[in-house]
Amino acid sequence: RVLTTNICGDSVYSSIYNFTAVSDTDNDGILDDVDNCVNTPNPDQADIDGNGIGDVCQDTDGDGVLDINDNCPTEANTDQADVDGNGIGDACQDTDSDGVLDINDNCPLTANTNQEDANNDGIGDICESVEPADTLTPNGDLQNDTWNIKNIEYVNNNTVKVFNRHGVKVFDASNYVNNTWGGESTEGGSGLLPAGSYYYVIEYTSSQGEAKVTKGWMYINY
Questions:
Q1: How far apart are CA 81 and CA 214, in angstroms?
Q2: What are phi and psi of 205, to 5 degrees?
Q3: Whole-angstrom Cα distance, residue 68 to residue 101?
Q4: Is 57 helix (H, G, I), strand (E, B) or coil?
Q5: How far lies 7's CA from each of 3, 4, 13, 121, 211, in Å?
Q6: pLDDT, average across residues 85-95
Q7: Between residues 52 and 207, which one has the greater pLDDT?
Q8: Which helix (H) or strand (E) is 14 found in, with range?
Q9: What is the pLDDT of residues 2-24, one digit of tens each?
Q10: pLDDT tens-digit map of 158-198
């Protein structure tokens, strides 16, 4: 209040009010002083974690990529690398769902929560045994068109032999690489093998130097 004198010589008090203009920078209808995302329009003010920062402008991991666009919102990954293109960043992917991120997992494709590695070679013990697919369907539908032997890439000096039900060898390969055999015969001719059951014998050496053999039946269908 301010004391002044009017034209009659009387002392009077006058009140002075200060007003501060509040803007709406992002034009979302929410004034800046109460907007949880001042520079990004979000009239719904959604804030799922209730931390006072709107979902549309939150960058939880501080990597410069907003959560709504971040393929790893809780793991910093500025490059947003995603080798398999599944929408989950490499930095936060856990392919085998064992609770260990792929980037730290000594067996990223085979669940091994305990990460046991007896010889400390960086390859989990469970990965040092192979697991052949039991079905091969080389029909061009891009599903099981080639024979996959899980963990074959982690073992050494592998030889793969496949026999028909009469015991005749129809496929023979050394240092087999996944997705290279589509049911073709390598013995006594070429072309696709007939549909049916086949017996495989896979010999290999683990990274610990242990000689191993995996045997079993697989089925070819078209």
A1: 36
A2: -120, 130
A3: 21
A4: helix
A5: 14, 10, 14, 98, 113
A6: 94
A7: 52
A8: strand 11-14
A9: 556 666 666 666 666 666 667 98
A10: 999 999 999 999 999 999 999 999 999 998 766 899 999 99
What gap in Å lies between CA 53 and CA 39, rounded to an integer?
A: 12
Are 218 and 150 contacting, i.e. CB atoms less than 8 angstroms apart? no
Percent of the chain with pLDDT over 70: 89
Hey, how many other C-beta atoms are within 10 angstroms of the C-beta on 136?
24
What is the per-residue pLDDT for 151?
A: 87
Would you call 163 exposed, middle or buried from its count of C-beta atoms within 10 A (0-12, 13-18, 19+)?
Answer: middle
pLDDT greater than 70 at residue 54: yes
Tokens describing residue 62: 């501080």
Number of Cβ within a 10 Å radius of residue 160? 22
Query: The dihedral of CA 63, 64, 65, 66: what is its sign?
Result: positive
Q: Which two tokens stand for residue 151?
A: 């963990």
Ordered by where they begin, the domains of the chain are: 1-58 (4.10.1080.10), 129-220 (2.60.40)
21 contacts 15 by C-beta, under 8 angstroms:
no
